[in-house]
């Protein structure tokens, strides 16, 4: 172990040093990957020096998601205290299904979940769990909604036509989860959105009424706090009113931006969150913990237990259910994702998490102001979003993004809304400052000026 830690420390130090001058790793085309890197597995053991060099080359060739040049996904940056917690979790290697296997780490997870429920405004009947990502927390909400509608489904299977509702701009996991849960992809109803990408409540109610009239049973409305492209927040209060009237489970998928829960200034974006049945957010996004760190909480913990518990005498042998977390988790063996969030939260306090969230919106304002003040740009974004969407000089977004990526300049993605395609810059890396946002634009503009003919030829091809 000591030798492995020495290798880890040396590679980490070399990487951090190299990132300062090379924030983007060299691009390796997928067609050339196996010829470029030594990824093969051999019969005989590798010599230590060759092994270390091969590992370093692999690490140095991997996309650098923590630098000030990474704007491609809905995560980024690197927080030392959170990484410390993650490394300790790996070293200890506890599984979080029983108190016997996890001990005090169960208390770490339960403390976080209790605090989150308190912040929402829920009482002692609320609880939650950690899952492997936003897709999984959305799946868990769908299962709870299904079982809350008819608790016989868990034993007898589906015999009724169930429907679920989500906005046209919601996460791609919803139809997948409908297939997994037995509800079916064709029974997902996509509700239209307004010009800001927010679900329209009147359209939702109209679809629910039509389905009821046709013999369907609505079981779930999936609202989004931070849509993947525009970062839009669906209006929770009117949706909660509709769900209450028709007895439909309301889940808020806050995987991207649900962490506004921690901000006094921006919590209004999830106004009414106390009225929903379940809520999820990813601490590995706005709160900067290492992947993955996804939380789902339910207003009534009964539904967590009903949908996910199963007796196993070989596993649950000591302590009571409250401390055997496998009774409320979809997984059995489960790594300790709570510790890295706890070490972060413990080190900076709730006020520190609030500062992180507010800072990302401040960076978004810097980006938006720059675009609005520059005639070469067309903006598609609006205030109160950390997804800044724009086009530059009428050059197709995918051309610019792909060329930047293949040239190892910047990592930034593109998206589309209402028939328009655009570059999507996310300001989620809390380690960035205003100067890093402005540097992004300067670097992109310089790149375009040097390759404008090539980019236009791609456009005309």
Compose a concise summary of this entry.
This protein is α/β, with parallel strands linked by helices and 461 residues long.
Q: Separation of termini?
A: 55 Å
Q: How are helices and strands ordered from N to C?
A: HHHEHHHEHHEHEHEHEEEHHEEHEEH
Mean pLDDT: 96
Instruction: Please provide the count of β strands.
Output: 12
Number of domains: 3
CATH fold group of the largest domain: Aspartate Aminotransferase, domain 2
Low-confidence stretches: none
Name the shape in a single word.
Answer: globular
Counting helices, strands and paired strands, the structural category is: alpha/beta
CATH architecture annotation name of the largest domain: 3-Layer(aba) Sandwich
Spatial order of strands in the largest sheet = 2-8-7-6-5-3-4
The CATH class assignment of the largest domain is: Alpha Beta
Describe what this molecule looks like in 3D.
The strands form two sheets. This protein has a seven-stranded mixed β-sheet, with helices on both faces. The mean pLDDT is 96. It has helices at 2-21, 33-36, 48-60, 80-92, 99-102, 104-120, 134-149, 153-156, 173-181, 201-213, 236-246, 301-308, 338-372, 397-406, 434-460, and strands spanning 70-71, 127-131, 162-167, 188-191, 217-224, 249-254, 278-282, 294-298, 377-379, 387-392, 411-417, 420-426. Helix 4 (80-92) packs antiparallel against helix 13 and helix 10 packs parallel to helix 11. It is globular and about 60 Å long. Strand 9 and strand 10 form a beta hairpin. It folds into three domains: 2-63; 84-343, Aspartate Aminotransferase, domain 2, CATH 3.40.640; 348-460, Aspartate Aminotransferase, domain 1 (Alpha-Beta Complex), CATH 3.90.1150. It is α/β, with parallel strands linked by helices and 461 residues long.
């Amino acid at each position: 172990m000591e030798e492995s830690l020495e290798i880890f420390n040396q590679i980490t130090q070399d990487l951090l040093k190299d990132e300062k001058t090379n924030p983007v790793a060299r691009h390796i085309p997928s067609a050339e990957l196996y010829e470029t890197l030594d990824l093969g597995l051999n019969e005989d053991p590798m010599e230590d020096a060759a092994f270390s060099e091969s590992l370093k080359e692999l690490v140095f060739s991997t996309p650098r998601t923590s630098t000030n040049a990474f704007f491609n996904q809905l995560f980024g940056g690197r927080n030392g205290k959170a990484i410390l917690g993650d490394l300790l979790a790996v070293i200890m290697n506890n599984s979080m299904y029983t108190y016997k296997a996890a001990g005090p780490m169960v208390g770490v997870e339960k403390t976080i979940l209790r605090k989150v429920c308190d912040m929402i405004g829920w009482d002692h009947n609320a609880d939650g769990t950690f899952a492997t990502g936003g897709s999984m927390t959305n799946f868990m909400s769908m299962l709870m909604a299904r079982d809350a509608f008819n608790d016989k489904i868990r034993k007898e299977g589906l015999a009724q036509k169930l429907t679920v509702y989500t906005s046209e701009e919601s996460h791609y996991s919803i139809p997948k989860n409908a297939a997994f849960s037995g509800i079916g992809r064709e029974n997902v109803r996509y509700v239209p959105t307004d010009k800001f990408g927010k679900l329209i409540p009147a359209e939702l109610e109209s679809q629910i009424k039509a389905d009821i009239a046709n013999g369907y049973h609505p079981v779930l409305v999936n609202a989004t706090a931070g849509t993947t492209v525009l970062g839009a927040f669906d209006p929770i209060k009117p949706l909660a009113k509709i769900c209450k009237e028709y007895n439909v489970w309301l889940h808020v998928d806050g995987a991207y931006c649900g962490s506004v829960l921690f901000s006094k200034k921006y919590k209004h974006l999830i106004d009414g969150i106390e009225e929903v049945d379940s809520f999820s957010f990813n601490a590995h996004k706005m709160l900067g913990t290492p992947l993955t760190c996804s939380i789902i909480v339910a207003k009534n913990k009964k539904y967590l237990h009903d949908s996910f518990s199963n007796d196993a005498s070989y596993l649950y042998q000591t302590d009571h259910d409250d401390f055997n977390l496998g009774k409320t988790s979809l997984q059995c063996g489960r790594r300790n994702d709570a510790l890295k969030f706890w070490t972060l939260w413990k080190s900076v306090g709730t006020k520190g998490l609030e500062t992180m969230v507010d800072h990302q919106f401040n960076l978004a304002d810097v980006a938006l102001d720059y675009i609005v003040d520059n005639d070469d740009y067309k903006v598609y974004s609006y205030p109160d979003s950390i997804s800044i969407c724009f086009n530059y000089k009428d050059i197709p977004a995918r051309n610019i993004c792909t060329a930047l990526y293949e040239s190892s300049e910047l990592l930034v993605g593109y998206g589309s809304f209402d028939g328009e395609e655009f570059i999507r810059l996310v300001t989620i890396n809390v380690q960035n400052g205003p100067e890093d946002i402005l540097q992004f634009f300067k670097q992109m503009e310089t790149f375009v000026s040097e390759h404008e003919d090539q980019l236009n030829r791609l456009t005309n091809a």
